[in-house]
Give the backbone structure.
Amino acid sequence: MRTPMVVANWKMHGRLAEARELAQAVRDGLKRPRGVEVAICPPFTALAAVAEVLAGSPLMLGAQNCHWEESGAFTGEVSPAMLAELGCRLVVLGHSERRHSSRETDEEIRRKVAAALRHRLQPVLCVGETAEERRQGLTFTVVEGQLRAGLAGLPAEDLVRCTIAYEPVWAIGTGLTATPSQAAEVHGYLRGLLSELGSKESAQAIRILYGGSVKPDNAGSFAQEPEIDGALVGGASLQAASFITIAKKSAAKSGASKE
Ligand code: 13P
């Protein structure tokens, strides 16, 4: 029912020439990905260039953030309409780096999710606890709060158009990962909440990706967990060979979907 998805989050990396080269190498290495959907999220400045490279390929283009308004006096912001016009199909929202360094609130993230959906962009809503929150036994409380707030008020038909990414903050860029079973436990909890917010059927259709130090050598073990539907990849997505390996290892076996 769920085809795994692997999303490259390049973060603030990729000047134009590098971005074109990296996107081209990924495109060449994943001409017809089987059993996995693949997306690349470059910085805003490289979206148009990467869109050209990906044209005609099954790889999707995504952005790393958007504003909730269509247009207006919002200096430095980019609207979902602008992203859709460039060919973006998805947008990462509520990434912990934005929650923490840019002080994004749950309410802002909720508005962004709703705005992205209005423009037919698939939101990839990120949730995750800090090391301290995990130590205090607050993991489920934190991710529940972020999930409920980010998706509040969405009708069931919009809920199924969202993708969730569980990214424990302590695993991002640190080389530490949640174990596949730790991640699967949180994914299972999130799926239970999604059933409450929509229905059991819609919850089964929503992908929950894992992110946080996913590398070629651990991607396969995450993929084996039925509750993990792919990966949101930071550092390792900056090397074409690593990202291609992760995508291949995340693919559903023999093209089957999860569940
Ligand atoms: P790393 O893969 O570099 O840990 O980053 C994960 C991430 O933040 C993806 O959004």
